[in-house]
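2024-03-11 09:14:02 INFO worker-7 job=invfold-0412 stage=load source=structure_tokens
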């Protein structure tokens, strides 16, 4: 199956990548729904929903401070680097990610849509003025209007950034090949994107029991390992 996917990539005029938290676990960042995932120990409604921002702001802020601090020790892994090389070689045109860690950009990908925002930039919940993540680590309130500060992530119940969504939808609808990597496809509306694809749909994931109807290829494995195997075949 790896050989088939490599040949699809070789002959594809437009390849799009869709990633989830499983793309970052090899960099040391937990995902959400695996046995070691965030939501096994934290109820997402208490820290990642619009309600959590108002009802228990301190818990909300601690959760994101913890994730921002953890990111300081984290760097892209081999799989991220391969996707950046493939963009440089013209093999990949676009990355749509649910991840908020900016590791695709750190690895070198330029064409990236952050469907769930990012955790490294901060705004005031009321006046929307930007603040630094350093400020957020030490202060809970906006320096202009004294309301609560929050990272620019999409919370449960919020809409996705419209431009990122439209771009990802357009790219996926036009692509010849779409690699869906490291996502459980459990969260709406991103889990609707693969069904909008007209090209070859490839699922690369550690768990492949569900969400795989309609895919042309299913490869069980880690993102880093599978991408490295495909990369070897492409460089032949
Ligand atoms: P929900 O029904 O509360 O959220 C669905 C959201 O998706 C709605 O707010 C809707 O506006 C939005 N949406 C639907 N179609 C859209 C489109 N075409 N363009 C833009 N936005 C569209 O469902 P939920 O299960 O509570 O959560 C899913 C939402 O929360 C999604 O927006 C997801 O991105 C986001 N989310 C973010 C996190 C996080 O920690 N960053 C965690 C989980 C979910
Ligand atoms: N390689 C490949 N797949 C992996 C790896 C890996 N190294 N590590 C984990 N996985 C798989 C897991 O088996 C799981 O199916 O990645 C998937 C991650 O799924 P989730 O934890 O549900 O993460 P994701 O799909 O990104 O969640 C979507 O939910 O809570 C929200 O906003 C949050 O963006 C997130 C969204």
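2024-03-11 09:14:09 INFO worker-7 stage=emit residues=236
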């Amino acid at each position: 199956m790896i050989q088939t996917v490599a040949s699809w990539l070789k002959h594809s005029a437009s390849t799009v990548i869709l990633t989830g938290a499983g793309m970052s676990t090899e960099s040391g960042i937990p995902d959400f729904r695996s046995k070691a995932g965030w939501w096994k120990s934290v109820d997402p409604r208490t820290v990642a929903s619009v309600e959590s921002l108002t009802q228990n702001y301190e818990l909300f802020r601690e959760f994101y401070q913890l994730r921002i601090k953890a990111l300081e020790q984290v760097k892209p892994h081999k799989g991220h680097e391969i996707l950046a090389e493939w963009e440089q070689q013209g093999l990949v045109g676009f990355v749509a990610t649910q991840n908020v860690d900016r590791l695709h950009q750190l690895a070198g990908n330029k064409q990236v849509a952050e469907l769930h925002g990012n955790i490294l930039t901060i705004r005031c919940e009321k006046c929307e003025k930007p603040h630094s993540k350093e400020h957020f680590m030490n202060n809970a309130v906006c320096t202009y209007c004294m309301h609560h500060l929050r990272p620019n992530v999409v919370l449960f119940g919020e809409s996705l950034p419209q431009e990122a969504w439209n771009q990802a939808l357009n790219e996926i609808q036009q692509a010849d090949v779409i690699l869906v990597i490291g996502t459980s496809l459990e969260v709406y509306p991103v889990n609707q994107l693969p069904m909008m694809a007209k090209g070859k749909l490839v699922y690369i994931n550690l768990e492949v029991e569900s969400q795989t109807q309609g895919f042309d290829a299913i490869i069980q494995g880690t993102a880093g390992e599978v991408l490295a195997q495909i990369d070897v075949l492409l460089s032949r």
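2024-03-11 09:14:09 INFO worker-7 stage=report msg="The pocket of nicotinamide-adenine-dinucleotide (ligand 1) is lined by residues 44, 48, 116, 153-160, 162, 165, 187-189 (CB under 6 Å)."
2024-03-11 09:14:10 INFO worker-7 job finished
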